[in-house]
Amino acid sequence: MELEQILIQFNDDVTKVETDESLNSLRTKYLGKTGILTDALKEIKNVPVERKKAYGESVNKIKTEIENKLENLKLQLEDKLIQNKLNNTKNIDLTIPYSHDKGSLHPVTIAEHKVIEVFRSMGFIVEDGFEVETEYNNFEAVNVPKDHPARDMQDTFWLENGQVLRTHTSANQNRVMKQYGAPLRAIFPGRCYRNETVDASHDTTFWQLEGMVIDENISIANLIFFMKTMLTKVFGKEIKVRLRPGYFPFTEPSFELDCSCPYCDGNGCSVCKHGGWIELCPCGMIHPEVLKMGGIDIEKYQGFAFGLGLSRLAMMNKDIRTIRVLNGCKLKELKQAKIK
Ligand code: DAH
């Protein structure tokens, strides 16, 4: 085919292109391995020497022109596609109620934010910890040496390198004491792990919020007053507290703190299992050994600590019956939980 003829034919072919597929076959027809223009280029070997240069230049010029046109056509087709889509959306009825699910914070996050806000207002610093901990921080530094029977209280996930998935946020106590010294008011919320049999209120993964107050002349009276004030602020209503004796190696004396049920004001309801009280927060006066290991001068300072069950608080707050709902993250189940 004569060179001029090629361009004329191409310009004619171009007018028929309407889809990506036809564009591609047009490209192959002219520029493919056995395409018209590729053949024309191969023809150069049969062209007399004196015309070779001019011939080559012409073929290349046509090639560039065809390439440019194909590129433009591609852009035009893309535009057309977008335009078609826009035209079709004209029929969408914007007044139909929007039915998509809206995102929201997880119940544990809601509880955590609420508690942190209260503690911040009381002058506490908020610290982070590590979910993978050393054996020392998780056990020894909180007065649970090797072979201490208390290690059996917390079934532990051990890692191959001898570290553990922390079984409690108390694992961060030593680090925080060493970092800030006394006087200290700190909380550290976080996720903990135990190798436990799962039931309605126990799971292998749960959240705690640890707190420590260290200062001069701290006594159990401070602990009671403080916990009462804090819970009253968290629940936004007057809360009573009571202490029962407990046992933890890192506190002496140790307590289980119950609060009056905020949902029925202690009259009895399903949340407090009709007892009027809810077991909420183990606590106690920090054991002198624990203070010493944290570098605190025990001649001068005492303190109390507590481990608030954040998962438990979140379950209470949203009336969630089994802890599995919190970790399962099934939106349907989480949504069914009432917000109180
Ligand atoms: N670490 C304990 C646990 O997970 C909870 C606890 C009890 C924390 C007493 C404390 C405390 O800080 O003083 O079972």
Topology order in helix (H) and strand (E) letters? HHHHHEEHEHEEHEEEHEHHH
- Main β sheet profile: 7 strands, mixed
CATH topology of the largest domain, by name, is: BirA Bifunctional Protein, domain 2
Class per helix and strand makeup: alpha+beta
CATH uppermost class of the largest domain? Alpha Beta
Q: What is the alpha-carbon Rg in Å? A: 37 Å
Q: Number of folding domains?
A: 2
CATH architecture of the largest domain: 2-Layer Sandwich
Strand order of the largest sheet: 1-4-5-9-8-7-6
Task: Please specify the SSE layout and strand pairing.
Layout: H1 3-14, H2 20-31, H3 36-42, H4 49-89, H5 107-121, E1 125-126, E2 132-133, H6 135-138, E3 164-165, H7 173-180, E4 184-193, E5 205-215, H8 220-235, E6 241-246, E7 251-260, E8 277-286, H9 288-293, E9 302-309, H10 310-318, H11 324-328, H12 331-336
Parallel strand pairs: 1-4
Antiparallel strand pairs: 2-3, 4-5, 5-9, 6-7, 7-8, 8-9
Bound molecules: 3,4-dihydroxyphenylalanine (DAH).
3,4-dihydroxyphenylalanine binds at residues 168, 170, 210, 248, 251, 282-284, 305-307.
Question: Your description of this structure?
Answer:
By secondary structure, the chain is of the alpha+beta class. It has two domains: 85 residues; 230 residues, BirA Bifunctional Protein, domain 2 (2-Layer Sandwich). Helix content is 41%, strand content 18%. It has twelve helices and nine strands. The strands form two sheets. Strands 1-4-5-9-8-7-6 form a seven-stranded mixed β-sheet, with helices on both faces. A two-stranded antiparallel sheet has the order 2-3. A hairpin with a 4-residue loop joins strand 6 and strand 7. Helix 5 crosses helix 10. The protein is elongated and about 110 Å long. The N and C termini lie far apart (83 Å). The structure holds 3,4-dihydroxyphenylalanine. The site of 3,4-dihydroxyphenylalanine has 11 residues, from strand 8 and strand 9. The site of 3,4-dihydroxyphenylalanine (DAH) has 11 residues, from strand 8 and strand 9.
